[in-house]
Amino acid sequence: MLSLVVLISGTGSNLRALLEATREPGYPARVIAVGADRDASGLEHAAEFGIPTFTVPFREYASREQWGSALLAAIGEYAPDLVVLSGLMRLVPDNVVSALSPNLINTHPAYLPEFPGAHGVRDALASGASQTGASIIVVDNGVDTGSIIVQERVPILADDTEESLHERIKPVERRLLVDTVRRIADGLDLSAR
């Protein structure tokens, strides 16, 4: 059984999808803890499912590296097989990537390498593109530059707003995440990426 720590910053909709998948008979992974970099509303999903939570507030540390060390210590208490950045809206520092890679994955609401960064949905709309997507990647030290595990296209409609486009990307992102975790549990080698 693959053990996961999931890190979030917001509402945790991808986290919720993973937690619901773990209730399915035969799903080969379980979330053992959920962490956040702030007081995130998504931590309530973990509480509902009886999953321990932790918060490592970024603002309490003098540097990203110090925050990263504290985050690693909190994650280390659970010794997960895989860490999932699922809406964590903060770049993890090099020490976190070095310690966890390649067993550190991220979800992104764009078809990478198109539209990296925190505003991928807005940037896709602003570019006039006809499509964007969702991607799951192995985290590296860049901004959404890691090896792509899986991705899928989502069309951009003429009347899309940032909110409506994001709402259509989210179900794709959730499905890709749940499937990717299953594939990793079933033996997908992330180090080969």
* Biggest sheet record: 7 strands, mixed
Query: Tally the helices: what do you get?
Result: 6
- What portion of the residues fall into strands of 2 or more residues? 15-25%
CATH topology: Rossmann fold
Number of strand segments: 7
Secondary structural class:
alpha/beta
Mean pLDDT: 96
* The CATH C-level class name: Alpha Beta
Instruction: Trace the largest sheet across and list its strands.
Output: 3-2-1-4-5-6-7
Instruction: Using the alpha-carbon principal axes, give the shape.
Output: globular
- Residue windows where pLDDT falls under 50 for at least 5 positions: none
So, the CATH homologous superfamily?
A: Formyl transferase, N-terminal domain
CATH-defined architecture: 3-Layer(aba) Sandwich
Rg over alpha carbons: 16 Å
Helix proportion: 25-40%
How would you concisely characterize the structure shown here?
By secondary structure, this protein is an alpha/beta fold.
Reconstruct the topology from this structure.
Blueprint: E1 2-8, H1 13-22, E2 29-36, H2 43-48, E3 53-55, H3 64-76, E4 82-85, H4 94-100, E5 104-108, H5 120-127, E6 131-138, E7 148-155, H6 162-185
Helix pairs in contact: 1-6, 3-4
Please describe what this structure looks like.
The chain has 193 residues and is an alpha/beta fold. It has one domain: Rossmann fold. Helix 1 packs parallel to helix 6 and helix 3 packs parallel to helix 4. The chain is globular, with a radius of gyration of 16 Å. The relative contact order is 0.16. The mean pLDDT is 96.
